[in-house]
Amino acid sequence: MIKLVSFVLCPYVQRAVIALREKSVEYEVAYIDLAHPPEWFQAISPLGKVPLLEVEDQVLFESSVIIDYLDEVFQPRLHPMDPLRRAQHKAWIEFGSGLLVDQMELVLAKDEAAFHERQAHLERQLKLLLAPLEAGVLDGDGVFSLLDAAYAPLFMRQELLTEIRVELAGLQPQPLQSWSDRLLARPSVKGSLVDDFRERYIAFFSAKGSWLMQQTGI
Predict the structure, then answer these.
(1) Which of 29, 84, 156, 168 lies most in the core, judged by the most C-beta atoms within 10 Å?
(2) What is the mean pLDDT of residues 164-183?
(3) Are residues 35 and 108 both part of a single domain?
(4) Active site residue: 10, 122, 147, 156, which one?
(5) Do residues 68 and 87 both lie within one domain?
(6) Residue 65 within a domain
(7) pTM, whole model, 2 decimals?
(8) 209 labelled catalytic
(9) Same domain for 155 and 100
(10) In this entry, which stretches build a coiled coil (predicted)?
(11) Is the peptide bond before 76 cis (omega within 30 degrees of 0)?
(12) Are 71 and 174 in contact, with CB atoms under 8 Å apart?
């Protein structure tokens, strides 16, 4: 049995969940409170972060490593077979990891000035996806890839944020929005979160003093 260790809002473990669902592999997720991690977690996580993957009494960490391992072990393969295209996808997956940090920092902004500064930064970073996307590097053949699994969590949260504050809809140019729409329609993506994710997400960042959440009155 594949076991993932996660925090309930973690977008990085969601990448692995989507990949596992695409491959029809049975798995379980153990959620922990990162603010008060259990001793057993601290003993097996060298970085003190999630996700972790437990398999055959061994532990893997870092989401990009975990999804690479899952793709090598379970069919169908989601990475491109061409070495150059596969390397490109891995590079843009790393870029996507940074985008998730940028997105989180936007939500964590404590005042309006910081919010708009981080909004502008995230918008600039998202626009860097346009050239490789339009060149077919990211979404050229229409076949679901590991890169898609890596970006779906970003797009899911962006959709939620747009529901909370309409002006954020403009962060994603139309080519990105079309890509997002395709990914969010997939059953593997729809089923990759806990049922009450929206409520948990809003409550978590509200408790962190998010200016965005305060302005919505939530």
Answers:
(1) 156
(2) 90
(3) no
(4) 10
(5) no
(6) yes
(7) 0.94
(8) no
(9) yes
(10) none
(11) yes
(12) no
Q: Do 68 and 88 reside in the same domain of the chain?
A: no
DSSP readout, 150-210? HHHHHHHHHHHHHHH-GGGGGGS-HHHHHHHHHHHTSHHHHTTS-TTHHHHHHHHHHHTT-
pLDDT digit string (tens) for 94-131? 999 999 999 999 999 999 999 999 999 999 999 999 99
Q: What is the mean pLDDT of residues 163-176?
A: 88
- Whether residues 96 and 34 share a domain: the answer is no
pLDDT band at 218 (very low <50, low <70, confident <90, very high): low
Extract long-range pairs of 33-36: CB within 8 Å, 24+ residues apart.
33/7, 34/7
CA–CA separation, 141 and 84 (whole Å): 15
How many whole angstroms separate alpha carbon 173 and alpha carbon 41?
40
Q: Are 86 and 79 in contact (CB under 8 A)?
A: yes
**Max CA distance (Å), the chain:** 49
Residues 6+ apart with CB under 8 A from 134: 175
Q: Tens of pLDDT along 192-210?
A: 999 999 999 999 999 999 9
- Whether residue 31 is found in the same domain as residue 112: no
Supply the range of the domain harboring residue 16.
2-73
Assign 96 to helix, strand or coil. helix
Q: What is the CATH number of the domain that holds 66?
A: 3.40.30.10
Please tell me the distance from the alpha carbon of residue 105 to that of residue 83, in angstroms, as a whole number: 34
